[in-house]
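Let's practice the habit of predicting before peeking. Look at the sequence and jot down your guess about where helices and strands might fall. Then scroll down.
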Amino acid sequence: MSKYPVAVGLTPNHQPDLAAEASALATSAATHVEHARTAQRLTQKYAASMVNNGALSLALTARLWDPAVWSESMQLTAAVGQRLHQQGLNWRQGCTLLLEDYGQLRQANTMSKLVEKQCNLSMQLGQLLSGQATDFLGLLENIDVDYGYWASQKTSAPLAAA
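Done guessing? Here is the structure:
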């Protein structure tokens, strides 16, 4: 059974199994619905976390002038800045490698080699974009969790007497 909706074969006598293909299409549709549900669930989870962190931020206003809160907040901010800087360096390095590979396209001596090099270049670009997106979203998730934990610790601690 083919995973594609249209049967493609080399023999002209091949008759497609329409029931199997209809089943494959139905399974594919169900898979798409499950992917949409997963995206919705994760979006709702992220929104709930953002609301919680917003409430914690509001609760932190009682500690607005606490030097320890300011110091730790700056440390969190510096850590995020370092991660973003590293991601920027990784992006520049990846782009540099892509440009070097692009410069080697003219070394192809046959059309098949040219197409192979172009496809490899396209795949490398896709991997770079995928890696950057994954790293950035991972950073956002870490910020969300780390800030939530830190803010909950700060809001649950008793206020120091002035």
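How did you do? The chain has two domains: 1-64, 65-162.
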